[in-house]
Amino acid sequence: MAFITAKILLLFSVLSLLQFNLCIGQNVKGGYWFPESGFAASDIDSNLFTHLFCAFANLDPQTYQLTISSTNNASFAQFTKTVQLKNPSVKTLLSIGGGSANKTVFASMAAQSTSRKAFIDSSIKLARYYGFLGLDLDWEYPQAASDMVNLGSLLKEWRTAVAAEATTSGKVALNLTAAVYLAPTLNDLKYPVQSINSNLDWINVMAYDFYDPSWYKFTNSHAALYDPSGQVSGSYGVGAWSQAGVNAKKLVLGLPFYGYAWRLVNANNHGLLAPANGPASADNGAMGYRQIKNFIAQNKAAIVYNSTIVTNYCYAGTTWIGYDDSQSINDKVLYAKQKGLLGYFAWHVGVDNNWALSQQAKQSWGA
Questions:
Q1: CB 276 within 8 A of CB 213
Q2: Omega before residue 64 within 30° of 0, cis
Q3: What residues contact 108, with CB distance under 8 A and at least 6 apart?
């Protein structure tokens, strides 16, 4: 009997892995959504995506278990069913953490095997309960060398637990992904590349937020694909991850569906690297693509495309906005495909303008 049971479990494991490999073999045309954006999940055109990330689940600072706020509970519970009404094949992942999450709590969780287990077990349970097909870790960012080591342990234990759960349940294994910094080295700290390669299905490379007007007194693209004079670009990040040993098919390039507005010192000096003296709008100058297009229309703003670094910008009066438009999205997606990457993702779908950028990205990638 024990032998038969073991054979059955082995069969389930093999079938699960086969299903799993078929799943992750698909290219990623991804996008993040979060309820605080004010954009309803039911309004997402999920036909434009293969994967949608629902953000963000929280980490309890005492128990280290995954939680979802009562405010978001209903929308998270219905997310998969909602987006699959338009596209039954779209895969959903529950994203954990985010830029505003307490990085100290994540570091504490990852530091001990018992707290890692609490996190891992609760994440799998929560993903299954809400009908998600994967889990996405957005720890921004590990702050010490020990954090990076512990992250490697966390990913290994997470993968083991996910595989075991799939075997015992007979279900397809959950996808495991992570949103990561532009490059594998952050403030002289190295990501656990070997563990990432072995245990994650892919990483979402956040190739944006390089510059913003609250810190820099000159205009610039916050998401340039190329940087002829340095190492602040999406192509540099992709190359660095590849050189560190991460397979290209585990790299997904981030596309920002938002830009930043600078206040020019001189309205007549309105190019890249023009002197500026702070944000020209609220939220440190951050503006969604729809908002930017409205600004252009209302102010008859001049539009420029810079093919050298691959960025769009516009200006009117003393307002200068760097952003991605259809042309830069096209060139970035073509770059990702030509480099053999797994795909692309957008932050975030709620600020697209009549799905112009999402449609462009899908069209540029092709089948």
A1: yes
A2: no
A3: 61, 64, 115
Phi first, then psi, for residue 101 (nearest 5°) are -70, 155
Q: What is the rounded distance in angstroms from the CA atom of residue 184 to the CA atom of residue 198?
A: 15
Question: Does residue 211 register a pLDDT over 70?
Answer: yes
State the Cα–Cα distance between residues 262 and 273, nearest whole angstrom: 11
pLDDT digits (tens, 9 = 90+) for 122-132: 999 999 999 99
Residues 6 or more apart whose Cβ sits within 8 Å of residue 1: none
Tokens of 267: 């309205």
How far is residue 224's CA from residue 312's CA, in Å, rounded to a whole number?
A: 9
Task: Mark whether 140 is an active-site residue.
Answer: yes
User: Cα(first)–Cα(last) distance of the chain, in Å?
Assistant: 47
Give the Cα separation of 83 and 78 in Å (integer).
Answer: 9
Q: The tokens 């996808």 sit on which residue?
A: 175
Q: CA 210, CA 221: separation in Å to the nearest integer? A: 8
- The Cα 199–Cα 155 span in angstroms is 6
CA 193, CA 79: separation in Å to the nearest integer? 32
Catalytic option among 36, 140, 157, 165: 140
Q: Are 340 and 248 in contact (CB under 8 A)?
A: yes
* Residue range 66-118, pLDDT digits in tens: 999 999 999 999 999 999 999 999 999 999 999 999 999 999 999 999 999 99
pLDDT at position 298? 98
In sequence order, the 6+-apart residues with CB closer than 8 A to the CB of 277 are: 217, 263, 265
Task: Give 193-225 as a 3 state SS string.
Answer: HHHHHHHCCEEEECCCCCCCCCCCCECCCCCCC
